[in-house]
Amino acid sequence: MNKRSSSPKRTTSQDVAKRAGVSRSVVSAVLNGTPGIGVSQQTRDKVLAAIQELDYHVDSRARGMKTGRSMTLAAFGDTSHPLFMRMLEGMQRASEQEGYHLLLSSPSRGPAGESREELLELYQQRRIDGIVTLDDTSYADTDWAAKVKNSGAAYVSVEGYAEDERVHSVHANYRESIQAALEYLWNPVSFTHTAPEYAEVFSLSHEGIVNWAEQQRRLGYEEWCSEKGLTPNISRHKQEEGKVDWHEWCQDRIAQQSAAPVLVNWSSAVPNLQRAAHSFGLRLGQDLLVMAADNTIQGDVLSVPTLSCVEIPYIEMGEAAVRQVLKQVREPEIAPSKVWLPAILKPGESA
Fold first, then answer.
1. pLDDT band at residue 1 under the 50/70/90 scheme
2. DSSP string, 49-94
3. Residue 34 belongs to what domain range?
């Protein structure tokens, strides 16, 4: 006679409550952060221990029906861009701490706006609880902001809407970052009357337009020079197909016998500068002191000598974006806010 196999009994929240010696409502409060139910750290630890002992797993569908939450956030950005991947690292870290998962969305071949609007559809279907986008620093699309507001979705832009107080956003403090770099570069004994040169690289793809972040960097440089009583020295360099030709600039430096440190706004332009300098017998960190105002390509560890830089904190910005969007999930009427994060000074051998 064949015996019918029976599947093992599934552990429930009632089993967890019984093992921890608490009510099911307390277990729910620990798992879901239920408002209005205070749980001491000792009780919380007992519940978490019971969950581990019983190998209890939350039924996400049941919890979603009860709480109205999917426990999923959408992250929208260009997956081919290293900065988006670093922001994702921070988002993943913060989401795990809050029991959330991430849904990755990247612009399709069509207009990026279509992909964004698809995320609003997912929100209406309760498949995501909020949206985080990585945007250009000059991004301020009023139509998209209006659609988000009308949908009621929790939303945070990383880098976008810097001057729009109606939209939740997270930013690096570009003005202060450039000034921190200048303080590191400048030696008042050696360069009493000479300001570090600010080499501003721009791309033809931007038609020479200086975006908000670059405007802030330049403003920070000019303010710093003014405070020191120094004359600003700004040079502009065209980047074509990812390259900058620094040869003429190196020739001018040699002719002028200039020893002033150089602050380059894009780290991606430094490898070309190093090659050009090498062709003239100039050594970075010795004959030519160079620093970058960002660290997009992780040049600090990939360069020889190592690159001095101020790194834009994309990992930390991703973490802050998750915290900010979850505040909206929990408090839908919360007023829009801006989060400003300092850049990270990373001394190297190049300056």
1. very low
2. HHHHHHT----HHHHHHHHS--SEEEEES-TTSHHHHHHHHHHHHH
3. 10-51
- Give me the CATH number covering residue 17: 1.10.260.40
> What is the strand order of the sheet 130-134 is part of?
101-105, 72-76, 130-134, 154-158, 169-172, 338-341
Residue 3 covered by a domain: no
pTM of the model: 0.79
Is the predicted pLDDT of residue 3 greater than 50, yes or no?
no
As for how many domains the chain has, the answer is 3
pLDDT in tens, 235-291: 999 998 889 999 999 999 999 988 899 999 999 999 999 999 999 999 999 999 999
Q: Taking every pair of C-alpha atoms in the chain, what is the biggest distance, in angstroms? A: 99
331: how many CB neighbours lie within 10 A of its CB? 11
Q: Is 332 exposed, middle or buried (0-12, 13-18, 19+ CB in 10 A)?
A: exposed
First to last CA, the chain: 83
Cα separation, 351 vs 337, whole angstroms: 37
Check whether residue 25 and residue 80 sit in a common domain: no
Same domain for 251 and 184, yes or no, is: yes
What's residue 27's pLDDT?
83
Helices and strands in the chain: count of H runs, count of E runs: 13, 12
Could you tell me the CATH number of the domain that includes residue 195?
3.40.50.2300
Q: In this structure, is residue 279 part of a structural domain?
A: yes
The answer to the question of residue 2 being in a domain is no
- Asked if the structure places residue 92 within a domain, the reply is yes
Mean residue pLDDT across the chain: 88
Helix (H) or strand (E) holding 172: strand 169-172
**Residue 234 in contact with residue 218, Cβ under 8 Å?**
yes
What is the rounded distance in angstroms from the CA atom of residue 91 to the CA atom of residue 246?
A: 38
Confidence of residue 205 (pLDDT cuts 50, 70, 90): low
Which structure tokens are listed for 270? 């430094």
